Amino acid sequence: MRNTNFLILIFLFLLSNKTIADGMVVDKVYHPYVLPNEMEFEWRVLSRQDEGQNILSQRLGYGQAISETTSLESYIIGERNSDGDFGLQAYEIEARVQLVEQGRYWADWGLLFEVEKEHKKDNYEVTSGLLFEKEINKTSLTLNAFIVYEWGNEIEDEIELEFRAQYRYRWIPQIQPSIELYTGDDFIGIGPGFMGLQRFQGQKQLKWEAGFITEVGGGGKDHSFHFALEYEF
Questions:
Q1: pTM score, two decimals?
Q2: 12 or 86: whose pLDDT is higher?
């Protein structure tokens, strides 16, 4: 009960905080797990419609576990600008750390660290966060709490707080519907999602996920669609 109350307090704190940043809050809800010896390729797409402006972002990543509890992944990020031209936007390095053995304690915990540099510009972003997951019968509750620090020659130094949540029904491995919530950057959004995976021989498996998020707080009319494919081997 104390752990549950603590998580509720974190949620309320993040929900009430307003930040002044220019990033996109809707992305991926991270799970606090690392598969030993895993290697993976990942493709993510985010389409955002905001007051008539459509923003399209894509990222390609390759990652692998460097220990039984830690994985590293690198990304190249492309984005379509206001003129409709799509080009390289940024580079990113990401580390995930699994803190406890899955299922051993009341909940599963992990950490996330990211460093991003904008292409051809001295603008940087560092993210650190806590990952949480709790299985409740046939459902799973996943929470992400992030602190993001941005600085550079062309942007103001600033600190953001972001929160992501996913409540998922584990119907069958291939289809797991969910409700997702995102807050941060003067934004509160919620909407349906789903994820699934197909296992093959050995450690090989294909994961997919998608979600449609509608802004319900912050004064805007943002609609975001995110999609990801992840092949692990």
A1: 0.88
A2: 86
